[in-house]
Predict the structure.
Amino acid sequence: IKLLQNQARLFHKQKNYPEVIQSIEHMLVQGDTTDYYQLMIGVSYLQVDSVDHALHHLEALEKRGEKSEHLFHYLGLAYRDNDQPEKAATYLELAIQEAVSPKMHLYLADLAQLKEEQGDHKKAIELYQQAYAEKEEAEYLFRLARNTDIYYKDKKIAIRYYQQYLATEDRKFRNYATERITHLKELVHFGG
């Protein structure tokens, strides 16, 4: 079992999730159901888009009384990927409540993305602002720009966020942000 545990940790560091799954499945057959490896296999299944298997392992951990920000975060992501947005929101909110780590911004951003996908742009804006306050990631500025662009009639707010995004080194959404600023400035100029 010790060899399989070492293999699983090594493969996990290498992000070789199919091998992580294989190693841990062998451990489970031999009777090792350690919470650490249950979480690792759940996360690995999530990474290879096997949501049902991920939920099986993650839910088993929760039923055994495990309550951690990481478990709640991955349960939230698994439920989101399984088209269960209400459960996803519940678990992402639990992750935020439990968070005592530098990953808080990720939990806030994942919940914001879920709210954005549900069309709750007001809540998404609030959550992206909190995520940005936790860690100044350029993508959060872009997401703020897009959501304020959709939610507010006053397009100057979105323009400011797009400009803040363009002031970063990030290139991922640069073309879109530049084009959107041009369009929004025309709207503002012509009173639209």
Observations:
- DSSP finds eleven helices and no strands in the chain.
- The CA atoms of residues 133 and 191 lie 32 Å apart.
- The two ends are 66 Å apart (CA to CA).
